[in-house]
Amino acid sequence: MSKLQEEVARRPISSRSSPWAIRLSKYLAQAGVTANSISLLSIVFAVIGGALIAFTIHPITWFCAAACVQMRLICNLLDGMVAIEGGKKTPGGPLYNEFPDRICDTLFLVPVGYAVGYPWLGWLCALLAALTAYIRVFGGSLGLAQDFSGIMAKQRRMAVLTAGLVVQCVETWLVGSHWSLLVALAIITIGSLVTCVTRTISISRVLAGRSGPE
């Protein structure tokens, strides 16, 4: 894959140019830490965060779960930087780049459904989150630029979840209900559905433009 193709296939992340991210990724690369191991570490944070969401009710645990969400995102940022900028690419890199993300989404979103009393909504949310990625990668398999757009792309899903968990921390302390997480889960579910639709329409339009007039 050429340098241009690599950049097109990468999710645009503004924090990739942040001084702290550049310094940390350089340190990890020089220390011999592989990009694939960082990708796998994101699953560890997802397991911890999902367990905190599913099995605990103390206000502080919601905050800790929110921290796990952010640590997962940091891993997602650093694995690509170590691989590309740090020169640690491997043939299996694309596999490690995609599969842990799908696992992490599921490990975070499904437990939220159980925590708020609507398991089916958690599973539906996780399915739609995975479908947004499938549509993106499917477009890439057709030779199109991967479409990272949408109102509920990964960073926005995790931002909504983080906000829901932080607010839930306060709500649990004050009244003990779970409306904050339920609202966050509903927003992610609906937003993911809309993202699936808009990405599919975008792919369809590009393909129709390629075919030209009959």
From TrEMBL:
The chain crosses the membrane at residues 33-57, 117-137, 158-175, 181-201. InterPro entries: CDP-OH_PTrfase_TM_dom. Keywords: Membrane, Transmembrane, Transmembrane helix. This is Phosphatidylglycerophosphate synthase. It comes from Phyllobacterium bourgognense.
